[in-house]
Amino acid sequence: MMECRSATEKEVMMKKMIGMAVLVPVLLVWGCGSKPEAPKAPAKTNEAQKTVPSNPGGPGKAIELIGDAKKGAVVFRTNCMMCHNAEGKGGIANPGSTDGTVPPLNPIDPTLYSKDYKEFAQNIDLFIEHGSTPAGKSPVFKMTAFGELRVLTPQQIADVIAYVIALNKK
After folding, report:
1. What is the residue extent of each domain of the chain?
2. pLDDT at 42 (0 to 100)
3. How far apart (Å, rounded) are the C-alpha atoms in residues 50 and 55?
4. Contacts of 2 (CB under 8 A, 6+ apart)
5. Which residues fall within 8 angstroms of residue 45, CB to CB, at 6 or more apart?
6. DSSP codes joined into one string, 84-146
7. pTM for the full model?
8. Does CATH place domain 61-167 in 1.20.59.10?
9. pLDDT at position 38, please?
10. Cα angle at 27 between 25 and 29, to 5 degrees?
């Protein structure tokens, strides 16, 4: 045992030893007294996990507006075609992303599609509003947050949403 030089040091050492004497048995009983839990299997689901933007945020004002697909086509050509290609067909290389390309919008990712117009519109809106960074080490292209940065107005976003939905009529 370590030699203490003063009464205060002896007091401190004594308190530490008493604390350890109490703590060790409590930890042993607590740790050894419980049965180990069996690992839980992940929940099984038939639904594919919904694709969501990497950037946080909720829907914007655009989902409350009525979009015009023809006007949306014009906005799309000016702001979206350079990455998503003509009519959203995709195929644009995105080095550094996991799959190596910018996602196509025609056809759109099946987890974004919905027969319910409002749900489909909201799924698209989240990406346009807040942007997204694709999975991968260092993707060259990242989706711009057109709504947050006010690059597009809510009406223009609603028009683009209507256009993308029109491209995906099933």
Report:
1. 61-167
2. 41
3. 15
4. 13
5. none
6. H-GGG----B-TTSSSSBPPPSTTPPTTT--SSHHHHHHHHHHHHHH-B--SSSS-S--B--T
7. 0.71
8. no
9. 42
10. 70
